[in-house]
Amino acid sequence: MRFARTRLVALVTSALTALLLIAAQPVTAQPVQRAADLPAAFDRAAAEHGVPRDLLVALAYAETHLDGHGGEPSASGGYGVMHLVSNPTTKALEKAAELTGLPAGKLKTDDAANVLGGAAVLRAQADDLGLDEAARKDLGRWYQAVARYGNASSPELARLYADAVYELLSLGVSARGVTVKPQEVTADRGDLATARDLSAQATVASPDYPDAAWVAANSGNYTVSSRESSYAIDRVIIHVTQGSYAGTISWFQNPSANVSAHYVVKSSNGAITQMVRDKDIAWHAGNWTYNTRSIGIEHEGWVSDASWFTDAMYRASAALTRAICNKYGIPKDRTHIIGHNQVPGATHTDPGPHWNWTTYMNYVTGSTGTPTWTTTVDNATAGQFTASSAWGTSAYSADRHGADYRFASPVEASDPAWFSATIPSAGNYRVDVWYPADPGYNSSAPFVVATSSGNQTVYVDQRSGGGAWRTIGTFSLSAGTKNVVGVSRWTSGTGYVIADAVRISRV
Fold this sequence. Notes:
alpha+beta, Lysozyme, 3 domains, 5-stranded antiparallel β-sheet
């Protein structure tokens, strides 16, 4: 959900211009492709344009969760399942029309056409990079084409965008009748391997909130100020991006946006990026007075789709809001923590009907701020970690959990290192893993979860994203004391496989 640029100079003209560019109205019901047709649409597009089907699905899911939103544009002007962008600086929609011969109107509103257009644009990026037929059969070799598809404003954002897509290949996707099984993929990052990893703990820290990364918005998208001496801060305003995490960060860096927020929160794991200093005035509320008095927090997702609003997002955002309220003396109530739709004169609907205010405010106030049960098992936890003699011990990385961690070379045999726990009762449990990241660690480390219906494997790229808890999914577990999470050595990925610590939480 994007917000009007409001200035003291030319106030009305600027606000109207920004609203015309980016206002997100309630989704209008339009005839769209039936969900049952979507799997066939991906199959056809992949075959017609020589693009890996699973990669195409993962890219679409990262952008939209496979929802075309009835032809309504995202904040940055992206349309359909494949988020074909048309804005002053990016013309992916127009490129798709040129490549497919389909009219732009059809590409916006018809799912099958949109998927064809996205596949054509992705293939064009691969061709520009010189990927031949043999290279195109390797999912990992598409990494830089995927990064280009995201139209990121910097190398680090291009990496953030592409990493999100490849993470979905390792975790698997299931939505709207379309399924991608978790799989081993070694992403060939090329030049982007040296770009700053925004998902890593060692990234540039936020100047105002230590748990967030710092990526500055374009200087033309906010007003430099000296709050709280110039204006008191007495509100937190909750927004929904109408777009993806990486896409929103990139949009706030685009001088054409004329909008910004102080913070952006990721759906899958609650990662936070700060883009405007607390002391400065972000253009997010569509009301100058409320801009001057508030902190704006964006949440990845779409107002019309509840699947974006994860527990990890609620908890991370609530912790941020709680810290802001404590810092500026803001009461933790719904008078002072409001949705964008509650701003006087608001024309926006976010965070919308799917946002759970009860859960969120409970987390903010701390009344239900912890899981009903959680346990952490480190590789050194007595009696709860087992591994063969092939697993070495290292304290090389400062990003480790505890005193050390275990490592082993990949082989064509499982030989797992197991973390055991006593699960108190059958139910759904979130599994988080901790590992130090290093370019020499495994590109596709298999984490095996012993669920009530059998083992499930999730592949994790341990070259990045380390030094912090990383959610690999929510699983159905049976009660009892047993091996719950294993790290297998059986992978075609390159580099040492790392086993450090796991956290299991009842959700």
